[in-house]
C-alpha cells in the first residue's frame, strides 16, 4: 500500500499478570484500518477483542494489564510511545469509542446535554452557551426527537436506544477519524438495534470515519462491515473482505462458527456445533490455539503455530491448511474427532 | 511470532485441565484465602494469646490480683512488678491480665447474641418480605434511632448492680439493629438469585431453601462484621465502665482500671497506659480479624 | 387458506394438550410514598395471554425486553401468582393446587434459566445441585441411589460423571448450563420452560446446548416453552411461535407461518430487523425500521398496543383492541385489524 493507513496495529502483545499466572490476552495482533472503512473484529468472550479496543484507547487497566510488545500506529505515529498529554489529546478528539452499556458509560448525575457539551468545552475551549447549542445540534443529528427540550434530561430518563444515541453523539462530537464501537447494539432490542446500526453507518459515511466494530454477532457484521478480522484466543485467525469470509472461509474456526449459528432465513436442521471450549488464556495449547477443537488438526498443528498468511489474494488465514480449507478440499480427520 | 518446535502432546489432549477438586464450601473457600493473608495471621496469633489470657490467666502470672498489701501501693514498674502496683498495692500486671476475661467475655457474648438475632430476623425479613419485613424494619429503625452509648448509659444507670450479664444484656438490646440490617440486605440479594427460584420451582420447602441456599451465601458479610463488632463492644464496655456505668468493683476489668487511673494521670501514668494498650490491642485484633474474614468470605468485597 | 389449513401444517395438531393457558394476567402495582404506600398504577406485564402446548412440541415465545415473556415464565412455574386466568396441566387446574399437591405437580413442569452463573448455588457441589430434586421429592429415587442417578444425569447432558464433586466455578458457562439442564431433567418433567437458555453463551457453545435440548426432547418426549429474544434461535428450535408485545400476544402460528408470511406488522418489523449472516443479501432485504421505542408497560396505549409505532394504524386501532384470532386469508392467529401476510419481509430462502 502506498498511503499510510489511518490506524495500524502491528504485532501487539497484551498480558494480564494475575496471581494465578500470566494470561496472554493478545498474542501478536495485526490489522490496519483506512478512512471510511469498517473493520469488524469478530470474536467470542475471551478472544481479546475488547482488550484490543481498550489498548488502542489507552484505557486498559494497568496493572494487571501489560503491553508486552508491538505498535499501534495512528497516521504512522506510535501511540504507545507517546507521552500522556499528547495521548490524551488524541483520545476523544481523533479516536473515540462507544461502549456496550450506555447506562454505565454515562454519568448518571449530569444532564446528557451537559455531557455532550463538555466535549466542546474541554477540547475546543467553547463557552457554555455555544457548547450547549452544539450539543442540541448533535442530539438532533443522532436522531433524538425533541432535542431542545431534552438537553437537560438525565441518562435514566432515556430508553436504552436513546442512551446509545447519546453516547454516539459524545463520541462523534469532535469529528474523530477513528470510531471504535465495542458491542454497540448487543444490549439493545432487535428493532432498536437496526436503528442504531443504521445511524452509525450514516455517520461514518458523512464523516468518512474509520469504524472498528467489535462484536460477536455474525449477522450485524455481514450487514455493515467491509473487512473482518476473526479473533480467537488473542490472535487473528482469519482476515479478509466480508464477502470473501462468508462465502469461502479459509480457517476452520470461521467455518465452524458460520455453520454453528442458527439462521433466521433457514429452517432448522441440526446445528453443527464446534466441540469443546475456547482455551484458557493462562494455559494455551501448543501450536495452533484452535487445534484441540479443530476437525482437521494434525500433528503439525500441535507442534507448529501457523502464521497469518494469504490463502488467496487479500485473504489471510492462520491455518496450516489454509488453501485446502479455502477451496473446501479438506476432509475432517476421524481420529481427531473422536 | 516464535516457532515452537517441541511436540507437546500432553497439553492438547484435553481442554479441561485436570484441576484438583477444590471444595467451594463457605469455610474451605475462606480458609484458602485467609491462610495467605498476613493480617489474618497476625490478628489470629494476637487473639489466641488474648483469649488464652482470658481463659487461663494463671498461665501468665503467678501473682494473685486480689492480694493487695497497702504497703506496696503506687510502685513504678519494676522487675518484680512488671506493670508496677496500683493505689491499693495490687500487682498491676496480674490485674491487667485478669481484666481480659470480663472484656473479652462481654465482647463475645454481645457479638454472638447479636449475630443470632440478626440471622433469624434478617432471614425472616429478607426472605418473606411483605408485612413481616415492614414490622421488623420499623422495629429495627426504632432501636437504631437511639444512639448506642447514650442508650446504654441511660439504661445501665438505672440498674443498681451491674455484672457481666447486665452489661452484656444492655449492649445487645442496643446493638442488634446494625447487624440485622446487614443480614437482611444480604439475604435480599441472595433471594433474588436464580438458584433460589430454581429451588422454589423444584418445590423445596421454605425452611430448606433458607438453610441450603440462602444462609450459606448470605452469611459472609455478617460473619466478618461479628468479629469487627466484638472489637467495638469491647471498646464500648471499657468506655461505659470508665464512665462509671459499666462493671463495678470488686470485678476486675480494664474499664475499671482506666476509671480509677484517671485521677493519677500525671503522677502514675503507668496505671492508664497498660490497660489502654490492652484494650487497644484487643479491639485492633478483632477488627483486623473481621476485615480479613469479610474479604475472605464475601467475594464481592474481594473483587476490589 | 382457511383455519382448517392450519392443522395440516402443524405436525403436533393431533397430540395431547399438556399445558393449556387461558387469559393469564399479571399486573405489578406501582406504589409511591415512604410511610403510607398508595398505588399509582400498574405495570401490565402479562395481560390476557392464552395458548396451548402439546406433547413433544416446542412453543417459542419471542419478544423484546419488557414485553413480559420472563414474567410469563414465572407465572407458568407459579413463581409468581397471576391476577387472573387459568393454567391447566393435562386438564388439572395448576393454579388451584396448594401445599403437597402443588409440590407434586412441580415435578412435571421445570425451568432452565438464562444465566448459568446465578442459577447454580456456588456453595454446593454439582452432585448436591443435581441431587437436590431427589432430596425434595424423596419418593422418586431411594436415598442410596441418588448418587448413581446424578451420575447418569451428568452423562445424559454430556458432562463427565466423575466431576460430580466439583463446584460450579470449575465449569465454563456452557457446562454450567448443562448442569442446570440436568437439574431440570432430574424429576422427569413433561414440560420444561427454557427462559433464554442460550443467550448468555458464546456463539460456538450455543449450538452445543441447543443440540442437547433437541436430543433430550426426542429422547424423553418433552414439551418446551422456549423463551428468547433471538429470532434465529427461536426459529431453529420451535415448532410453533408466539410473538409477544407489551404483555399481549401479537401473533401465534407455526414456525413456517410466522417466518414465511408474518401477518402482524410488529412481527414483520421484527423479522426484517434481524441481521442475516450473509453479506450478499446486504441492501436486498426489505427492512422495516420502526419509529421510536416500545411504550412504557405501566401506561400502554389504548386499543392496539402497537399502534404508536405502526405504519398501518388508524383511529379504529386506538379505540378497539384487536383480538388474537385467525383472520380470513391468513392461516395463523394475529392480533391486528389489518393483518395481512407480507412475504417480502419473510425470512425464507
Number of helices of chain B: 11
Distance between the termini of chain A: 45 Å
Rg of chain B, alpha carbons: 25 Å
* Low-confidence runs of at least 5 consecutive residues of chain B: 1-21, 300-304
> What is the average of the pLDDT values of chain A?
84
Number of helices in the DSSP assignment of chain A: 14
Task: Specify the CATH class of the domain at 105-304 in chain B.
Answer: Mainly Alpha
Instruction: Tell me the number of structural domains of chain A.
Output: 2
Q: Which structural class is indicated by helix and strand composition of chain A? A: alpha/beta
| Helix content, binned percent of chain B | 55-70%
Q: How many DSSP E strands of chain A? A: 12
Mean pLDDT of chain B: 80
- CATH superfamily of the largest domain in chain A, called what? P-loop containing nucleotide triphosphate hydrolases
Write down the Rg of chain A.
21 Å
Helices and strands, with pairings:
The complex is a heterotrimer of chains A (338), B (304) and C (349).
Chain A: E1 7-18, E2 21-33, E3 38-42, H1 49-57, E4 65-74, E5 77-78, H2 84-90, E6 95-98, H3 102-105, H4 112-124, H5 128-141, H6 147-150, H7 160-172, E7 178-182, H8 190-207, E8 210-215, H9 218-224, E9 227-232, E10 235-241, H10 242-247, H11 252-260, H12 299-303, E11 309-312, E12 315-317, H13 322-327, H14 334-337
Parallel strand pairs in A: 3-8, 3-9, 6-7, 7-8
Antiparallel strand pairs in A: 1-2, 1-4, 4-5, 9-10, 10-12, 11-12
Chain B: H1 26-34, H2 38-55, H3 92-128, H4 130-144, H5 148-158, H6 164-191, H7 194-201, H8 206-242, H9 254-261, H10 269-297, H11 299-302
Chain C: H1 3-9, E1 17-32, E2 38-54, E3 58-62, H2 69-76, E4 84-89, E5 92-93, H3 99-106, E6 109-112, H4 126-136, H5 146-156, H6 173-185, E7 191-195, H7 203-220, E8 223-228, H8 231-237, E9 240-245, E10 248-254, H9 255-260, H10 265-273, H11 315-319, E11 325-326, E12 333-334
Parallel strand pairs in C: 3-8, 3-9, 6-7, 7-8
Antiparallel strand pairs in C: 1-2, 1-4, 4-5, 9-10, 10-12, 11-12
Helix pairs in contact in C: 4-5, 4-6, 5-6, 6-7
Structural features, described:
The complex is a heterotrimer of chains A (338), B (304) and C (349). With 338 residues, chain A is an alpha/beta fold. Chain A folds into two domains: 225 residues, Rossmann fold, CATH 3.40.50.300; 97 residues, no CATH class. Chain A is 35% helix and 23% strand. The mean pLDDT of chain A is 84. By secondary structure, chain B is an all-alpha fold. Chain B has a domain of 200 residues: MetI-like fold (Orthogonal Bundle). Chain B contains eleven helices and no strands. Chain C has a domain of 236 residues: Rossmann fold, CATH 3.40.50.300. The radius of gyration of chain C is 21 Å and the shape is globular. Chain C starts with a helix and ends in a 15-residue tail after the last strand. Chains in contact: A-B, A-C, B-C. At the A-C interface, helix 7, helix 8, helix 9, helix 10 and helix 11 of A face helix 7, helix 8, helix 9 and helix 10 of C.
